[in-house]
Specification:
32% strand, Alpha-Beta Plaits, 249 residues, 6-stranded antiparallel sheet, 5-stranded antiparallel sheet
Length: 249
């Protein structure tokens, strides 16, 4: 059994456990490839499920497997850690890679960490609640910057990603046209990205250029970023489509 089959078996086993014991079970945080694998076995589950990553359209998601006739209230086991420099005067500009590297050096598994959201003065780390105290006690420095950390419960975490709206005319709503327009690349390059398995639509790996984008589709393109396809604004006299997208910055 290869790695992908083991991951899919794990999903089914978690669902089976939830069904037999009458409890909610949870996956770790899943990347886009793992979410795509989950989409391929959804019809084999024993239970219902919900997916959440700590905020709307989070990239790394956690799955809750929910049995029928559940008798208790439950919450996602996610905390948010707020990381702030001790001295703003001497702070460095910390990147996603800097924060992730600091966490990995503590021995934290990547699957226990959700999205890392760097900001101007503070960074948010989403993680499993079983790890939040350890991270807060252990994460005292990122690169040369001494930091303070505090824990927010996910219920009190309110985050909206920064979106940059873009409108323009494309030949059609076909996937390569939308990607080329959004990221200012050639359509041939967009096609190569799609065929190379580098494009996900709503966490599903799309390798065919026959896909046409629909309103509110979330497109993730490795090496380029993420966007939301909003809608078609109108059609030009030449039959082309004027579209609106929002790019995650």
């Amino acid at each position: 059994m290869d790695k992908e089959q083991l991951i899919q078996k794990r999903f089914i086993d978690l669902s089976n456990t939830a069904d037999k014991k009458g409890i909610v079970t949870f996956s770790d945080f899943l990347d886009l490839n793992e979410q795509n694998l989950f989409n391929n076995v959804k019809n084999q589950l024993y239970t219902d499920y919900k997916i959440f990553g700590g905020y709307e359209h989070a990239e790394r998601q956690l799955i809750a497997f929910i049995p029928d006739a559940l008798y208790y209230a439950w919450n996602y086991p996610i905390d948010c850690i707020v990381v702030e420099p001790v001295s703003k005067k001497f702070k460095e500009k910390l990147t996603h890679r800097d924060i992730l590297g600091a966490l990995m050096s503590l021995g934290v598994e990547r699957s226990k960490i959700g999205d890392i959201l760097p900001g101007a003065d503070e960074t948010y780390i989403l993680c499993l609640d079983t790890l939040s105290s350890f991270i807060c006690e252990s994460l005292t420095q990122v690169r040369h910057t001494t930091v303070n950390t505090t824990i927010k419960t996910i219920d009190s975490f309110d985050y909206s990603p920064n979106l940059v709206d873009k409108e323009g005319v494309v030949a059609s709503e076909r996937l390569d046209c939308v990607i080329a327009f959004a990221f200012n690349i050639k359509r041939s390059e967009a096609v190569s990205l799609i065929q190379g398995g580098n494009v996900f639509v709503n966490a599903k790996n799309i390798t065919s250029n026959a896909y046409f984008c629909k309103p509110d589709d979330i497109l993730s393109v490795r090496g380029h970023g993420k966007l939301r396809f909003n809608n078609v604004l109108n059609e030009t006299k030449k039959g082309r489509s004027r579209i609106s997208v929002s790019i995650y910055s």
